[in-house]
Amino acid sequence: MSSPPPTYAASIAAGIWASGADLVGYVPSVSVAPVITALTETETETDTDTGSGIGSEIGGDDRPGRVFPLSREEEAMGVLGALPLAGKFGAIVMQDNGFGNALTALTTFNAAYHLPLLIVANTRGGLGEYNSMIHSLCQHVPGLLDRLGVRVFELDRRSGPDDWQAVVAEAGTHARMTYRPVVVLAHFWATDGKGA
User: Fold this and answer.
1) Torsions phi, psi of 119, nearest 5?
2) DSSP letter string over 74-120?
3) How far apart are CA 155 and CA 61, in angstroms?
4) Per-residue pLDDT tens for 37-65?
5) What is the pLDDT of residue 59?
6) Which residues contact 1 (CB under 8 A, 6 or more apart)?
7) Chain center to CA of 87
8) Cys-Cys link to 176, which of 23, 78, 102, 116 (CB 3.0-4.6 A)?
């Protein structure tokens, strides 16, 4: 009997781990909750940390602590963006409307100091969006990031979960290769028939 195909959320998680991320921070949101769940369920499977060092210090003794929440997007840019200074690589999972909070940190720290960082953001404001107020910022995020010189890759339901995993992993490689933050905007709406 064959196993069911991977979900988009599981593919994002697998792509983040395949990118070589040592730590993953997230800003809690119901729309990215399936990705966060997939990351926490697989963090021990991909854990190369032996129980000492940066990963175990965050989570304590009862879990590896490679996946952890942060309160705001600009905090995520600082905490995960500083990892290259310690020889590590970080990823962030958030919503794209959070770039309203994160742009100053992203441009004056991560981009300005050539710190590689993988950012996977759920795109809001597209097909299936129920919140009419979210469109005012979110529809401009791809163009805004492009104007700021931040490389953006977009995923939507026209690609299957395997492609999502590959693009996320390659975006992490691209971030490390170019010494820059890289953003993957993932249109989770109407993929698995749920919010994410």
Assistant:
1) -120, 120
2) HHHHHHHHTGGGGT--EEEEEEGGGHHHHHHHIIIIIITTT--EEEE
3) 36
4) 999 999 987 655 434 344 444 444 454 58
5) 43
6) none
7) 19
8) 116
